[in-house]
Amino acid sequence: MKARNSIRSLKRQAGSIVVRRRGHTYVINKRNPRMNTRQG
């Protein structure tokens, strides 16, 4: 899981869901796990 400056570009990936948990923003992608990221 990588931390990115901008997760906006990852929202466009197929199967991506943006989730906010405990003050962190995550992109969860079960179709392509390489796109899993955390911000914050």
From TrEMBL:
Belongs to the bacterial ribosomal protein bL36 family. GO terms for molecular function: structural constituent of ribosome. GO terms for cellular component: ribonucleoprotein complex; ribosome. It holds the Pfam family Ribosomal_L36. GO terms for biological process: translation. Keywords: Ribonucleoprotein, Ribosomal protein. HAMAP family: Ribosomal_bL36. It comes from Amycolatopsis acidicola. This is Large ribosomal subunit protein bL36.
